[in-house]
From TrEMBL:
Residues 6-124 form the Gfo/Idh/MocA-like oxidoreductase N-terminal domain. Pfam families: GFO_IDH_MocA, GFO_IDH_MocA_C3. Residues 136-275 form the GFO/IDH/MocA-like oxidoreductase domain. It comes from Paenibacillus vulneris. This is Gfo/Idh/MocA family protein.
Amino acid sequence: MKSQPIRIGILGAGNIGRVHIQTFQQLPQDAIVTAVTDSYYPLAQQRAAEYSIPRCCETAEELLSDPDIDAVVIGVPNKWHAPLAIQALKAGKHVLLEKPMAIDVPSARDIVNAQRESGKVLMIPHQMRWEWLPLQLKQQADKGAFGRIYHAKAGWLRRKGIPGWGTWFTRSEESGGGPLIDIGVHMLDLAFFLMGNPKPVSVYGSTYAEFGPKKRGIGTWGTPDWNGRFDVEDLAAALIKMEDGSTLSLDVSWAVHMDTDSQHFIHLMGSEGGASIRGNQGKLLTESFDRAVEVSLTPPSNDEGGRIRLSRHFIECIREGKQPDTSVMTGFTNNLILDAIYESSRTGHEVVLDWTL
């Protein structure tokens, strides 16, 4: 396996599945996509034809039973993440599992236990932490440029971006939630990465649904099903407290009356310096000779891109038998926080995180 390309099967031939196919096909020395399946079989056939994938399977069971497949990518609606991931691990496959790792904490616990029993690699492909800008900031954080990062603000505020109204995106039993579990999970992962992975201990949060129930704030992603329903949030806000005393505030929305261009953001506040990301722009912030100093960051020439880096990392972890940077426990941490925010919103109280597995 160390000298041969890793043979990969794709579970879910939708947009995100296509992105993974395109990415792995840019790494022919490391990986080869050998099979694809989808609950809508004609879409799997279409992807197989588009990308010259040798095998098109009618079911996930058929793909997972193939002994010639080493690893799978799971890019399906959130509800099916845990069942398929556990099935894949039990079948002896390594797993690249799209975010969020699970629809809720009980499902996340099941995945953690299945991964530990299997000994296989399970990685969550949070592509944002693999982009050049966060990687540059992480290098500075690791050098101590910011000192102690005691607070961070992160978020992603879309002004008009509810996806696929009425489809699985906006049905809680299939998605687990709205923008918090959809794009908020990306910002959680990015913030914890840059803060040095402090251990979260409690959460206070609130969620709101002011647009979706009125069929307003509709975005361009996905095809609406106007006979469906919207029973998730369209904005969430939270404060997360860490064991070391640091804090993280999080704000995410699919729709909001705010002067925003729908860019993600993160601000790091450290004892010796700070940093700011707004979309694809970033800067370091400090003080010198009693003056505020800002240093803008610039991308490296010929940057290969975050998705290439994360896909190569997945292959490397398989070949070397090591834990990925976005391991099953990072996924479990995110699910703990997401569930706690929803619970805090329901009860109006702070929620202490339960790390029991």
